[in-house]
Structure formats: structure tokens, C-alpha cells
Design a protein that fits this description.
69 residues; single chain; globular; 3 helices; alpha+beta; two-stranded parallel sheet; 46% helix
Length: 69
């Protein structure tokens, strides 16, 4: 979109790549797994929740502030 700079657009993939790597490459998540996502209210955490739920894993998340919960 016109309201997003090139730099902002280029950075959009970074949280998604981090979440994917943590869950699927390092964690080798499976549908029957239970996953704890520490910092679930941040950029990486929010995407990790969506990715983990998309494969059928049970998700438990933490957040440090009332706004994040």
C-alpha cells in the first residue's frame, strides 16, 4: 500500500520467518503438541500462535502486561 514504506514492507517477513523457524524447523511441531509461546502478545508471538493453531497444536501464551493479555 502507498502508506507503507519500502523498509516497512521489507521487514514484514522477519517476524513470520522467526516464528516459522522456531516452530517448524527447530521445534518440529506436530498437531498433538502443546506449545508455550512466551511473549505471545508481540509480533513474533502473535504469528507463532496462529501458525501453531493452524497445525492443530494446543497453545498456551504468556504476556507481561495487562494490555498484552
Amino acid at each position: 500500500p502507498d502508506n507503507v514504506t519500502f523498509e516497512q514492507g521489507a521487514a514484514l517477513g522477519i517476524p513470520g520467518t522467526a516464528a516459522y523457524r522456531a516452530l517448524f524447523i527447530r521445534g518440529q511441531i506436530k498437531p498433538e503438541d502443546t506449545v508455550l509461546i512466551h511473549g505471545a502478545s508481540g509480533g513474533v508471538g502473535l504469528l507463532a500462535i496462529q501458525m501453531a493453531k493452524s497445525v492443530g497444536a494446543k497453545v498456551i501464551g504468556t504476556a507481561s502486561s495487562p494490555e498484552g493479555r
